[in-house]
Amino acid sequence: MKKAIFIGAIGCGKTTLIQRMDKLKIKYNKTQTLEFHSNIIDTPGEYVEHRAMYSNLMTSAIDADVVVLMQSATDPRIVLPTGFSTMFTKPTVGIVTKIDAATPHQVKLVKDRLIDAGANKVFEISAVTGKNVDAVTDYLNN
């Protein structure tokens, strides 16, 4: 499995996706520290929401093989600025989360934002229903 770092805003579904991928009971714990699961580095949403913490993301990504940018389809903000991925020297993919709670327009908007931030490939998932979670798992396993 590729070692991945998950980066996204507070509440975008990073931890929920990890729990779904690891077939764990889904529970919500608010943390403000890095957490390590299997081969995934789960970053606090504060790291991306406060630009002063970008250096923490760059340092944390050193051991990762792939950067995974995540944003909820229900979050209309520009969380990840244009070219965000250029601070990393790793392949970058995007994940639009919470597609089960969004309109197709919202999903497309966030997908376009992830591409603008530098994602080369974008997955659209629902960690709650499990839709397309296997595609993310397969990508990280190959």
Percent range for helical residues? 25-40%
What average pLDDT do the residues reach? 93
The CATH fourth-level homologous superfamily: P-loop containing nucleotide triphosphate hydrolases
When the domains are counted, the total is: 1
Structural class category: alpha/beta
What overall form do the CA principal axes indicate? globular
Largest β-sheet summary: 6 strands, mixed
In angstroms, what is the radius of gyration?
13 Å
Describe this structure as you would to a colleague.
This is Ethanolamine utilization protein, EutP. Keywords: Nucleotide-binding. The protein has about 140 residues and is α/β, with parallel strands linked by helices. It has one domain: Rossmann fold, CATH 3.40.50. Helices cover about 30% and strands about 20% of the residues. The protein is built from five helices and six strands; from the N terminus they run βαββααββαβα. A six-stranded mixed β-sheet has the order 2-3-1-4-5-6, with helices on both faces. The mean pLDDT is about 95.
In short, what is this structure?
The protein is α/β, with parallel strands linked by helices.
Comma- or semicolon-separated keywords:
142 residues, alpha/beta, Rossmann fold, 6 strands, 20% strand
Write the layout of secondary structure elements.
Blueprint: E1 4-8, H1 14-21, E2 35-37, E3 40-42, H2 46-49, H3 54-60, E4 66-72, E5 92-97, H4 104-117, E6 121-124, H5 133-141
